[in-house]
Structure formats: structure tokens, C-alpha cells
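Backbone-to-sequence.
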């Protein structure tokens, strides 16, 4: 006569999960003045918008999102990164017989392995959720960033045109519309 036994296992799993996403684009700047002067003008405009100058780059950090503009090449990189510690727990139970089938310790190990796979699946699911959150943050940031960068480029270009016009001759008249970005300069040579 065989006796049945019940096996119950519990496991917990703690992991640090990380997620990141990034995108890069190129700013289009006219070379009205030499590159280093154009870079300086652009840097001044971006610093006014909350960026910090770090050598040949300007950087702004907003929560998990970092925006970096390489002034020499005009490359804009936007990166979102985050990490989170995940703790998951679970229990699993099964039964066996003392005279047939796997031994009690083998049955217990099998249940533990199944439970570990389930917990790993839960961690993977949380990692996917974190990745989606980061991607959503990045997309939200990109919506406003393009217009902001275009304004900075336009203001830097306008300042470069003013400096170039002053080098060419006497500025007689200058009309500027900040809303549309139009600039009219009359120069007497």
C-alpha cells in the first residue's frame, strides 16, 4: 500500500532590471561664420534653454531623460534610462507517492525549478513594462524637443547673420520677427 505525500515549495527572486532607449538626429546649421563661432552661438542659445555646457557638448537632464548636443558635429542624442529593483515571490505545491514515481527530494527540486521559471517570467514581464515606460518618456520628450532645437538654431543663425552683416558694411536697417523667424538686414557696403 502506497502513501501519498504533499510537497509545498516557496521561492523569492530579487533582481535589478534596467531599461534604456535612445535616438539621434542631426541639426542643420548654415555655415555663415566659421564652425567654432557657429558652435559658440548655438551653445549660448541652448544654455538659455536650460542646457549646461560640458566641453564641446551641451547637456540637459530631465528625470530619466538626457539630451546631449555635440556642438562640433551638430548631433543630438536623446537617451532615456531607468532601473528598478524587482522582488517577486511564489509558492507551488504538488504531491507524490512513496512507492512509485520520483522521490520526494526529486519532486521538490522539480517544483522549485518550475516555480523559478514562473518567477523569471514575472521579472521579464516587469522588465518589459519598464522598457515601455522608458520608450513612452522618450517619445514624450521628442515631441517638444524638435521645435525647441529649431528655435535655438534659428536664433543662432540670426545672430551669425547680424555679425556677418556688420563685417560686410554699415547696417542701415534691421527688421526681425521672432515669431516667424524672419530677419531682414539692409547693409551699406
Amino acid at each position: 500500500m502506497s502513501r501519498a505525500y504533499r510537497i509545498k515549495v516557496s521561492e523569492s527572486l530579487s533582481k535589478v532590471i534596467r531599461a534604456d532607449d535612445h535616438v539621434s538626429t542631426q541639426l542643420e546649421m548654415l555655415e555663415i561664420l566659421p564652425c567654432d563661432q557657429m558652435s559658440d552661438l548655438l551653445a549660448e542659445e541652448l544654455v538659455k534653454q536650460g542646457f549646461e555646457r560640458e566641453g564641446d557638448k551641451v547637456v540637459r537632464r530631465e528625470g530619466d531623460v538626457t539630451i546631449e548636443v555635440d556642438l562640433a558635429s551638430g548631433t543630438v542624442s536623446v537617451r532615456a534610462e531607468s532601473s528598478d529593483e524587482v522582488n517577486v515571490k511564489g509558492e507551488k505545491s504538488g504531491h507524490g507517492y512513496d512507492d512509485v514515481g520520483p522521490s520526494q527530494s526529486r519532486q521538490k527540486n522539480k517544483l522549485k525549478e518550475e516555480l523559478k521559471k514562473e518567477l523569471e517570467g514575472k521579472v521579464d514581464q516587469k522588465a518589459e513594462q519598464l522598457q515601455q515606460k522608458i520608450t513612452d518618456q522618450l517619445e514624450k520628450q521628442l515631441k517638444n524637443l524638435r521645435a525647441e532645437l529649431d528655435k535655438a538654431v534659428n536664433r543662432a543663425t540670426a545672430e551669425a547673420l547680424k555679425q556677418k552683416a556688420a563685417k560686410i558694411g554699415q547696417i542701415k536697417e534691421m527688421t526681425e520677427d521672432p515669431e516667424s523667424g524672419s530677419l531682414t538686414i539692409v547693409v551699406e557696403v
